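Late entry, evening session. Most of the bench is empty. Finally got around to the prediction I had been postponing all week. Sequence below, unchanged from the version circulated by S.P.
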Amino acid sequence: MLTALWIERFREDAGVPPLERTNPKFELRGINHLALVCKDMARTVDFYTNVLGMPLVKTIDLPMGMGQHFFFDCGGGDCIAFFWFPDAPEAQPGISSARVLPTVGDFSTAHGSMNHVAFDVPPERFDEYVEKLVAAGIEVSEISNHDDSEWTVTKELHEGVYIRSVYFFDPDGILLELACWTRPLNEQDVLIPPRSASASPG
């Protein structure tokens, strides 16, 4: 288990200053809310309040029978929200959402889609929370310790790991993640140039 003491020791010994993270353009304070679409609002409320423990903080009936819009507090002053539209199209896994868990197969989705939502958790409670999901009957992925190796993940926890992840689906097939940062990010974490759509891959 990753302890708070281990994390603090690594941060102190890293010897590399963290990235400058000031936004010179806008005073953005985080994600106000992320709005998704569900098939059954009652089922969604049950999952996010009773399984994930998120308080339901705002409920809206849209005008002219258009549907509903509900907000859940997901921590840090941020919300995850859901629309329910009575005549919405069916889900399209593999296009608008991931078809499988990332550790199982191809989890790519279409341009402009929302691939997954990651909730930040304390690193010292990460393993505990994975066990709580399993105890609640939720199918979860293998734990991914993300590092800068060739395959970008490892089963072993070491000082090169910068974030830990476990993935699971909500009742509508929306891919969710519990994630925790394990070290400060620095200039060595932003050395890869972005690819252009007009450039050949590889």
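Two things to note before I forget:
DSSP finds three helices and nine strands in the chain.
The longest strand covers residues 68-75.
Will write this up properly tomorrow.
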